[in-house]
UniProtKB/TrEMBL annotation:
The protein's name: histidine kinase
Reaction equation(s) it catalyzes: ATP + protein L-histidine = ADP + protein N-phospho-L-histidine
Keywords: Coiled coil, Kinase, Transferase
Documented EC number(s): 2.7.13.3
This protein's record includes keyword Zinc: no
Domain of life: Bacteria
InterPro entries found in the cross-reference section: HATPase_C_sf, HATPase_dom, His_kinase_dom, HisK_dim/P_sf, Sig_transdc_His_kin-like_C
Species name: Magnetospirillum fulvum
Residue stretches in coiled coil: 55-96
Location of the Histidine kinase domain: 105-336
PROSITE patterns: HIS_KIN
GO molecular function: phosphorelay sensor kinase activity
Length: 337
């Protein structure tokens, strides 16, 4: 269409030249006016040609840019998809690593009562074999019998108490592990769940001499996801051990529970560590943000906490930090909607 238009305008210019030739007898002012009009029209045609060329060039560049933008967008969407997949994989790995640390700690804790029970059983077996030899030789005196009965009594008490301790640890670990690996919703006693979770984390805390205090009203029952809550507490504890406390410096961890509303539970987890610097407080829940990148930190612990609290637990989490320690305030519904 543009070439047809310019052809028509060229014909107009030719006709203008013909007209100029026929105006030889016209007054000079008329001829000058016509010349000015023809010159202006010619400049307009040339400017239109130039603008058309510029427009064609810009359209070609715009088309190229659109193709490049589409390609970059496709690459960005693919990169985002890959990043989300990698993040989900890392989150799952972090959860499994947390459960692995729990398994290792509980195994170490169970080893002590089982070892004591085994030593006592071995000592009882030796004492019983000695007593059998005396019996078969018909050489049992009152003193030997009294010593044997004392050994049996003490050994039985030690075996029984340590087996009960191991059974309690195994029971706590079993419930915590089942809750963590299944996203099951159920009714549970909040105080019992807090105690079971902290008991499973006990080895990690006692190694450095940290003190744990739990303040929870008795009989407080929730209808929620105990596995998610256990995972949150586990990540809080590991975060305190890694970031809050200096090596070989005993600290204090406090968990306080109250009910601001009948249908709400508020859990305050606080440690007496060195707190979180002000410049980092706005980023602690961001994925992959960590101040221990070179020391094994992944930056996913508190990101997982935030997702669990705002997701399955349907609550909110607020950070309160100072130079005297760090506190996380969780507000959760008693019954998940």
């Amino acid at each position: 269409m543009s070439f047809d238009l310019f052809d028509a305008e060229e014909k107009v210019l030719e006709q203008s030249d013909s007209l100029r030739g026929r105006l030889t007898d016209a007054p000079e002012e008329v001829r000058k006016g016509v010349d000015l009009l023809i010159e202006a029209f010619g400049r307009s045609v040339r400017e239109q040609r130039r603008l058309v060329k510029v427009s064609d060039r810009l359209q070609a560049q715009l088309s190229s840019l659109n193709h490049e933008l589409a390609r970059r967008r496709a690459e960005a969407e693919q990169a985002l998809s890959d990043l989300k997949a990698a993040q989900e994989s890392l989150v799952q790995a972090e959860k499994l690593a947390s459960l692995g640390a729990l398994v290792g700690g509980v195994a170490h804790e169970i080893n002590t009562p089982v070892g004591i029970a085994l030593s006592c059983a071995s000592h009882l077996a030796d004492s019983t074999a000695q007593m059998r030899r005396l019996y078969e030789a018909d050489d049992i005196g009152a003193d030997e019998f009294d010593r044997y009965m004392a050994t049996v009594t003490d050994g039985s008490d030690l075996i029984l108490s340590n087996c009960r301790r191991a059974a309690a640890l195994i029971g706590s670990f079993k419930q915590v592990a089942v809750d963590r690996t299944s996203a099951e919703r159920r009714r549970f006693d909040l105080g019992a769940t807090l105690n079971e979770t902290m008991a499973s984390l006990g080895p990690n805390l006692r190694q450095a001499g940290h003190e744990v205090t739990i303040e929870c009203p008795s009989g407080l029952v929730m209808d929620s996801h105990p596995g998610a809550l256990s995972q949150v507490l586990g990540n809080f504890v590991m975060n305190s051990l890694v970031h809050a406390f200096e090596p070989d410096q005993p600290g204090r961890i406090t968990i306080r529970v109250d009910q601001p509303q009948p249908d709400q539970v508020r859990i305050v987890y606080a440690d007496s560590g060195k707190g979180i610097p002000a410049q980092n407080r706005g980023r602690i829940f961001d994925p992959f943000f960590t101040t221990r990148r070179g020391s094994g930190g992944t930056g996913l612990g508190l990101h997982i906490v935030y997702n669990l609290v705002t997701g399955p637990l349907a609550g909110t989490i607020v950070l309160e930090s100072s130079t005297l320690g760090t506190a996380f305030v969780l507000t959760l519904p008693v019954s998940v909607p």
